[in-house]
Amino acid sequence: MVRINSEVKPFTTDAFHNGKFVTVSDADIRGKWTVFFFYPADFTFVCPTELEDLADHQADFDKLGVQIFSVSTDKHFTHKAWHDTSPAIGKIKYTMLGDPTGTIARSFDVLIEDAGLADRGTFLVDPEGKIQYIEITAGGVGRSATELLDKIQAAQYVASHPGEVCPAKWKEGGTTLKPSLDLVGKI
């Protein structure tokens, strides 16, 4: 089972990125903060609203040095067709990974085996290739890019400030905590 601090398993797949077909592997995540954003299928209903939301916040992810990989069990050819025909998906500048065999979805434990589709799963991976954030929602529940950005900022802050933690509702520039015996029972 995938857990916090587990490493991303090796993979290689075809993808669609900026009008071209490219090959992406686990080597492409080393040294970078990466979001794997799994969704059930192209040409559906909730999925384009989520992917458009990510696209609308691309500059915010770029400022944080985060690359986005959206992933479904569709082929990279299908991603291109969707990108070319949907105004919402046409906004996407991030990489859309094809996972027609379900190998990547299975390695992140989000493959719905009997349907051959991925659950709505979001994974934040640190530059060492370790998972730092996991969110999995029901098929009918869309996710928010702004909430994801808050989680990324907190994870990056904690990674660069050993000994500090971010409390609930923390926003960039907010007060953090330094766990110690002195704080026990005082929060």
TrEMBL record:
Broad class of the protein's primary localization: cytoplasm
UniProt GO BP: cell redox homeostasis; cellular response to stress; hydrogen peroxide catabolic process; response to oxidative stress
PROSITE patterns given in the database record: THIOREDOXIN_2
Active site: C47 (cysteine sulfenic acid (-soh) intermediate)
Catalysed reactions listed for this entry: a hydroperoxide + NADH + H(+) = an alcohol + NAD(+) + H2O
Cellular component terms per the entry's GO annotation: cytosol
Entry's localization field: Cytoplasm
GO molecular function: NADH-dependent peroxiredoxin activity; thioredoxin peroxidase activity
Domain (Thioredoxin) ranges: 2-157
UniProt keyword Metal-binding present: no
Enzyme Commission numbers on file: 1.11.1.26
InterPro entries xref list: AhpC, AhpC/TSA, Peroxiredoxin, Peroxiredoxin_AhpC-typ, Peroxiredoxin_C, Thioredoxin-like_sf, Thioredoxin_domain
Family membership: Belongs to the peroxiredoxin family. AhpC/Prx1 subfamily.
Quaternary context: Homodimer; disulfide-linked, upon oxidation. 5 homodimers assemble to form a ring-like decamer.
Function of the molecule: Thiol-specific peroxidase that catalyzes the reduction of hydrogen peroxide and organic hydroperoxides to water and alcohols, respectively. Plays a role in cell protection against oxidative stress by detoxifying peroxides.
Protein name (Swiss-Prot/TrEMBL): Alkyl hydroperoxide reductase C
Species assigned in the record: Gluconobacter morbifer G707
Taxonomic lineage from the root: Bacteria, Pseudomonadati, Pseudomonadota, Alphaproteobacteria, Acetobacterales
